[in-house]
Hints:
Elements: H1 4-17, H2 31-34, H3 38-52, H4 60-63, H5 67-74, H6 81-85, H7 90-99, E1 118-122, E2 130-135, E3 155-160, H8 175-189, E4 196-201, H9 203-217, E5 222-228, H10 241-249, H11 263-277, E6 292-298, H12 306-309, H13 318-324, H14 335-338, E7 343-349, H15 361-372
Parallel strand pairs: 2-3, 2-4, 4-5, 5-6, 6-7
Antiparallel strand pairs: 1-3
Amino acid sequence: MASDEDVDKALEIIGEAISTDPSDFQDHETWKFLGLGDLSASATASDLKNQVGLDVKPDVFSKYPTVGEFKAHLKGKAETSQSKAKGTTWQNTQNTSKQLPEPADPWEGVPKPKVPLSVILQGDPNTATKLVFLFPDGSGAGTAYGTLPKIHDKVAFIGLNSPFLRQAQDFTCSIERMARLWVDEVRRLQPKGQKYVLGGWSAGGYYAFEVAKLLTAGGEKIDQMILIDSPCRLIYEALPEHVVGELTRKGLMGAVGQKKAPEWLIAHFTSTVISVDKYMPTPLPKDKVPRKVSFIWVKEGLVKNVAESGLDVDMNVKVTRFLLEPRGDLKTEGWEVLLPGAKYDFHYMTGNHFQITQPFHADSLGKHLQKCIKP
């Protein structure tokens, strides 16, 4: 059993390994999410033994994958007297709880949203021949799409805001549950008998996909999905929190001009990537797949040269390369497994991943939306 002092020393060593202040660790965060890769995990376990005298195995971070589980293990509380009586370990109890079904009411325990769930971006949902629902990126702000130019007279665009906008501390639910929080709002706005058009930027693509699952399971039909620079989770990892911190430090995420990203945006983005880290989608049945799937990709990276950028990041992480480096013409990038049999089309806009709805680049996005959406 390690003392509190030894646990603190251990967390300091881990923090040094991943360039993160241990005071920023949250018990529910995984080491993988925080950026502790397999090689660095093994080396860090060795440091804990040599520098603190802790008898830990090389696989300690995989056996105790979250900060809370790891601390409990060091303190000898991985198996409490209460859990022994139940014939299970603390860790197994945690793992089992993650597998329990979500509440029948997805709003159970969720605080009242501080902003409307949806906002009409352009057009009139009552008279439009088609509605397009756009789900937000990690910022959670559907209002970010408000910079789009006028796209079609007969098409209405609806932006979805996160229920946890301005209260990211309460955002601890799964991507799938987030979709359940939105689906009734989408149904409420969609004229009966029309097929759905769902789109999303970055993590918004995951939300759109999960809402499509819910709608088709209820007998609805999806006509089209629009995936805007949304890296398929089957191929790309969740963005490590360390990278979020580095991008924020350099003003590369959520910043507009000289104006830094607001704290609420960074907080919501961090909660989003924690949720994405636990997300692994399964395919839509082939008979439920949208008729058409449109991909809109950017080709620019966040920096021209990673080595000269001053960013302290691991470029072996695919999603980090996806954000930072210039790209060629990306295609389906794994989404074909989740959306088999659809007709795919591809579009390439200006800017980098975080500039998509910023002035000028929003005009480029608008032009491509005009091409792929027909009234």
